[in-house]
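Input/output pair, single chain:
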Amino acid sequence: KVQNHVKLSALLLRTTQTHFSYLFMLSSLARHATRLTALPVIVGVRSLHVHEYLSMELMREHGIHTPEGYVASTPDEAEDIYTDKFQNAGNRRRDCVIKAQVLSGGRGLGHFKNGFQGGVHMVTKPGQAREFASQMLGQELVTKQAPNGILCSKVYMMERMYMRKEMYLSLLMDRSSQGPLIVASPNGGTSIEDVAASNPEVIFTQPINIIKGLTEEQCRYMAERLRIDEVSPAFDKTVLLMKNLYDMFISCDCTQIEVNPLAETPDGDVVVCDAKVNFDDNAGYRQRSIFDLRDYSQEDPREVEASKYDLNYIGLDGNIGCMVNGAGLAMSTMDIIQVKGGSPANFLDVGGGATEAQVQKGFEILNNDSNVKAILVNIFGGIMKCDVIANGIINAAKEIGIRKPIVIRLQGTNVEKAKLLIEGCGFKMILANDLEDAATKAVGVADIAAQAEKIAVDVKFESFDL
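Output:
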């Protein structure tokens, strides 16, 4: 499934520096820079995502022109903002745009589970803000990026902008140039992926020397490529905006700043009308004020819990829970599960230095997932010792009472010791000789468990095939 593939591949980018050609599809920014020249590759880092209204606040703090905007948490608050800020503020009455604040792209084309269409609407008359907000707040918005829906708890009331030109601008970290990259296109305001596919010649990139920073010459070059008249006031404003964006990119430890659209207004202003900003998780210790903005309600609670224990976890929609050490082995494990007719419920890489406590927490997450019908453990012991995994499994079984069938394939360091621990633990677990055998057994027992659950029959699985 496309959604699972994207999520898995995104995690692989986080956990390994190995390059795979298909990973170019993972980030819109990699596609944005599609040209006849070499494509940029995204650096494998974890990224914090924040809501649009918070991104706009950060930009204003860095001298970047954005539309006037206010956040609302209730329908009445949204209506009050429209009345007080956009209708009765001075002599100028203005329309505004109400935007659902969820961490997903494609909000405008999405739909809410209550049947309301679109997460972005124009507010042009009294009563609309309250009506739209009442349909959005407390509801889950379904988009292409979030097919299961994401809860909308806030809406952003933003001044409507009249745009003479819509452009695209982004900054990201690029592996091929080993530093920041600026990407620009005069064809903004639409899906940049579509632009990259149909008109790659109008997407321009410039690698940035991390020591020198973004230069005046580079800014002017990109402003020209955005087809802004060099003698117009907008040209110098665009150059300054690029400099300020780069200052924010560096000072806030961003991994991505994507502006779409960047608008030139009829009176010559250059305004960031919509933006997506990600931050490097590794910089959390020095960007505490930014990381305090993290909205956990927008994230899979399993992933949030796993992150507290430094576990690389991504929830999927299958029924076989996986615990593996190493991203490559984890991907291979899920591939063979698919080959055997099953479907993985997650990606869980415990890494090479996991402790018994981490392994136990991983099992708790898998055990608490109602979609998981069987658990497959695939460990190739090198740095990660098999007996540590075995003790973690046993401790989890003792403390939380795991009732789901567990299939274990262990090879490598301390494997015999691990087998002895499992033999004497008092819990029945299914051991496999190799990965293919493990996948076959996991798919089989998961299917049996799922069928038994449907007819309310209790099934127990017992095996010590060492």
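The longest strand covers residues 254-264. The two ends are 35 Å apart (CA to CA).
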